[in-house]
Amino acid sequence: MTVTADRLSEIARSLNHRQWQPTAAEVAFGTSFFQQMKKMEDRPSYGFPRGASWWDRLHTENLDTLARVVAMMRDELPPGVREQLTGSPMVELAELYIDAAEPLLPHARRLLAAWHDAALPSPSAHTIAREAQRLNVSAEQAEGRLRYESACRWEKETNPRSLWDDLRPAWARLGAVRSTMMAAVTGDTDY
Question: pTM to 2 decimals?
Fold first, then answer.
């Protein structure tokens, strides 16, 4: 597929102006994509620690999830799906998502290799107990929070802030593709 730089805008505009109204098969394909992505987000690999809130995740975990989603999408777009949805903007959106992720994948591989090699210190029982008392939470919650904070420090030491700033345009492009896919699936185009 040849995609112009403006193709995402063209698809979004056609959706917003209701020139493209996704078929049931397109909606099913997009729904499947989001369901698979949600499963991957809910089932992290590599034992990444999480913060106190559900959105407190390491950049490393987000990159790992992205790499797994892209691999899944490559597998989910076999010729049969492409033939069934020939010329579908939904398939184009899936391919745009994969293309937008490409600049992030080498960084994801490097960061995941560094994560595998990292030896993060485990908090002591005394530190866990003190943190649990300070926050008025269980020892398990305190330990999770301490592990997350330790992993955040590791991530900052391993990756300079400028690197994340350099990756921001690719993340923004992914967000735009994902938002357009979600609008196509839900029909919510009044944005």
Answer: 0.83
